[in-house]
Amino acid sequence: MSNDVYIVGIDMIKFGRFENEKAERLAAQATLMALDDCGLGIRDIQAIWAGSCNATMMGQRMLHYIGQTGVPVVNVTNACATGATAFREAWIAIKAGLYDTCLAVGAEKMGKGMLVPKNSQGTAIPTEGLLGSGVMPSVFAKMGMEHTRKHGTTFEQFARVSEKNHRHSTLNPKAMYQRETPLAMVMESEMIAYPLTKLMCSVNVDGAAAAVLMSEKKAKQSGLINRAVKVRASALASDPFTARNLVMQDVNTVTRLAAQNAYEMAELGPEDVNLIELHDCFATAEICHYENLGLCAEGEGGAYLDSGATQLGGQQPVNVSGGLLSKGHPLGATGIANIYEISQHLRGEAGARQVEGAKIGLTHVVGLGSACAVHLLEKA
After folding, report:
1. Which DSSP string do the residues of 89-134 spell out, in sequence order?
2. What is the pLDDT of residues 336-365, one digit of tens each?
3. Mapping DSSP to helix (H, G, I), strand (E, B) and coil, where does residue 269 land?
4. Domain membership flag for residue 29
5. pLDDT at 203
6. pLDDT digits (tens, 9 = 90+) for 210-254
7. Rounded CA gap, 213 and 299, in Å?
8. Each residue of 330-356: b (16+ CB within 10 Å) or e?
9. In the 8-state DSSP scheme, what is residue 15?
10. CATH of the domain at 227
11. In a designed cystine with 342, which of 123, 136, 197, 361 is the match (CB 3.0 to 4.6 A)?
12. Nearest to residue 160, comparing CAs of 314, 14, 331, 293?
């Protein structure tokens, strides 16, 4: 018997704003939903990895609402890759033979508006003018402008990413926003950091997602293998040393490294992937990541978008969930939420947005600092 690992239960709450809830309560809700998805209870879980960027000891606090069973709980934080990292640690533990059944959960409470660095007293640290700007819209605006300088990518092409993902979101009942934004609306909305308008920026929301992972042997014994999703590869990378301009934060190199490692582990190539949930924190990032993930050649991201390949019904649909641009981006939950979306398609349970014939899916998240997680999932 192999030591392959399967997702047997997975779910996410509808992303939104829950002003009177704590992150651990959102995590508890998602966990119960994931357990219900596979007919298990909290006593069946042998170890837990809980991801959050802002909540302290979230895993243990979550169990106050579900039931404390004495199992090991590890709390994880890894910027935007937090949830995916928690998932990967649970996967590693099962691969290593320590456990048969583990839980990975991610949850976050997010404020409205722009994320800015703060000191220990909670006061915003002014970065404007020190290194260009450290606020995220500016970082990804620079990423887009560099792509334009090298490859001629246009403002309209970046805007079409948002048009596409917002259109996809209308088919996802768990997305924060479910409304179309025609191209003109995207381009004419408030300019945040050129070429990024407000409708080309991801949504800060509250959210939670959870997954139950199980060894192949246990999944077969439990009768859960037929609806399970196989984790074909799990890769996590940080920035390698490069002689680069420190004004530019680099999310390209770390993504390429993680993707390469994942493809090698899975013995697959980009051409084998049927759908992708990638880190579209800003519209500029999605086009760059087409190239970083090997979906198209260097400099052809804009053309790949224009070809229709990445829209629902295309060759390799990207962010059919609506992506971070519409579904929302609760940092600790995002990685597992992306895995949930791919799992729904591989199970054939994605409803109106189902990617027909999906057998292999890829998820990707990047946390600046840096951390990049890439997972390849396969229909059982």
Report:
1. HHHHHHHTTS-SEEEEEEEE---SS----B-TTSPBPP-TTTSS--
2. 999 999 999 999 999 999 999 999 999 999
3. coil
4. yes
5. 86
6. 999 999 999 999 999 999 999 999 999 998 887 765 545 678 999
7. 38
8. bbbbbbbbbbbbbbbbbbeebeebbbe
9. P
10. 3.40.47.10
11. 361
12. 314
In whole angstroms, what is the distance from residue 318 CA to residue 294 CA?
13
Beginning with the edge strand found earlier in the chain, give each strand of the sheet holding 275-277 in spatial order.
73-76, 47-51, 101-108, 207-215, 5-12, 229-237, 371-379, 360-367, 275-277
Q: Which residues are catalytic?
A: 80, 329
- Number of separate domains in the chain: 1
Mark out the alpha helices in the chain (DSSP H runs): 23-38, 58-66, 82-95, 136-151, 155-169, 183-188, 216-221, 252-266, 283-292, 301-306, 323-326, 331-347
Burial of 223 (0-12, 13-18, 19+ CB in 10 A): exposed
Q: What DSSP string runs through 126-146? A: P-TTTSS--SHHHHHHHHHHH
Mean per-residue pLDDT, 6-17: 98
Determine the pLDDT at residue 66: 96
pLDDT tens-digit map of 261-270: 999 999 999 9
Full domain range(s) for residue 303: 5-112+203-379
- Residue 43, class by beta-carbon neighbours within 10 Å (0-12 exposed, 13-18 middle, 19+ buried)? exposed
Asked if 297 contacts 156 with a C-beta cutoff of 8 angstroms, the reply is no
Rounded-to-integer distance, Cα 241 and Cα 58, Å: 33
Q: Which two tokens stand for residue 41?
A: 């209870």
